Amino acid sequence: MSIDVLVPTLGESITEATVGEWLKQPGDAVAADEPIASLETDKVSIEVNAPSAGIMGKHIVAEGDTVEVGALIATIRTDGKAVPKAEAKAAPAAETSSAAEAPTGDVPTLSPSVRRLVLEHGVDPTKIKGTGRDGRLTKEDVLAAANAKSDPAPAAQPDPVAVTDVGNPPDKPSIQRQTERVRMTRIRQTIAKRLKSAQDNAALLTTFNDVDMTAVMETRKKYKELFEKKHGVRLGFMGFFAKAACLALKDVPAVNAQIEGDEIVYHNYADISVAVSAPNGLVVPVIRNAESLSFADIENTIGDFGKRAKNGTLKMEEMMGGTFTISNGGVFGSLMSTPIINPPQSAVLGLHRIEKRPVVMADGSIAARPMMYLALSYDHRLIDGKEAVTFLVRIKEAIEDPTRLLIDL
């Protein structure tokens, strides 16, 4: 007996997805509710679970194919019989991972990104211990194996084109030039569309300020051990900025509003989207009712988002409905940037790296202080320049004097 595997309901207004990776191949044993495939939507990657225990049948679609909700993507045999060779051979995913693409031997199942790294670095996947789910190889596994090679072999290259510069000495070695064409993931496609839409539909402007991080850094240093011991999470910078943003949004409600048609929608709550790096791009899960959360609640939520963004288990509803965004480019070393808003929101706060700079103090002396540039990009159709500047000043005041966060100033 054979059971159909269908594309599950993906969430509100989402009707299709892209097959990201087959986690089970034809002939593999599967348990009920075990992940057998991953799908990429325009917001997040999700897993498709086996509807019943049995033997994986054929893949109806291949990795990279676009499928609609309810579409048939695979079958599972529940009679315990092995999958016929003809059926397994018909599976598109099985054809794309042929032995010709990788070293010989008992080749493990490789995702497209891992397969590219295997070919690029010329490593044997059968000799690498996988650290991913069910022992699968990850990109980090391949890179670690490549770095460990004492005498790296030349990377396998698809049909290199030799180009010799005219006029160079005849004994000069030829230059190999190549290109690689990779299909954009659905998440990356959506990021591109949304960012372009923000540029086309909003009157974007950015205002800057800088903030002295001395007080926050001293507070973290003084209480970080007690905080982690009590709450089980590290006290980070984002908690301070999220709480400061909540106070500033209360003082300047336009920054927390959005335009719908010819109306302005104001929010009396702060659902703060935080930009988090994921393997396929940036995602922005939402801290709901941030104004009512403690530092520990905020730090725990952000830490959980970061972990689940990396393994692709963020839920669709967790990335919907934010009213304001905070993006921390400083973790990557950015000194200054002009972040772009996340529609339909009207503003985004950009944080940057902390570096010591000479600052003229109130008494006229000059001191080296840990400074950070802040950037607020906003929709000028809704937010005036005075409001944008006032908002950043409120953030600056709260960070330079964290006591304000406790007494709501």
Number of E strands: 21
How far apart are the termini? Answer: 67 Å
The value of Rg in angstroms is 26 Å
| DSSP helical segment count | 10
Outline the structure in words:
The chain is an alpha+beta fold. The chain has two domains: 2-148, RNA polymerase II/Efflux pump adaptor protein, barrel-sandwich hybrid domain (OB fold (Dihydrolipoamide Acetyltransferase, E2P), Beta Barrel), CATH 2.40.50.100; 187-407, Chloramphenicol Acetyltransferase, CATH 3.30.559. It is 28% helix and 25% strand. It contains ten helices and 21 strands. The strands form six sheets. Strands 11, 14, 17, 18, 19, 20 and 21 form a seven-stranded mixed beta sheet that branches. It has a four-stranded antiparallel beta sheet with strand order 1-8-6-3. A four-stranded antiparallel beta sheet has the order 5-4-2-7, with no helix packed on it. Helix 3 packs parallel to helix 4 (139-148), helix 7 (237-251) crosses helix 8 (295-310) and helix 7 crosses helix 9 (385-400). The protein is globular.
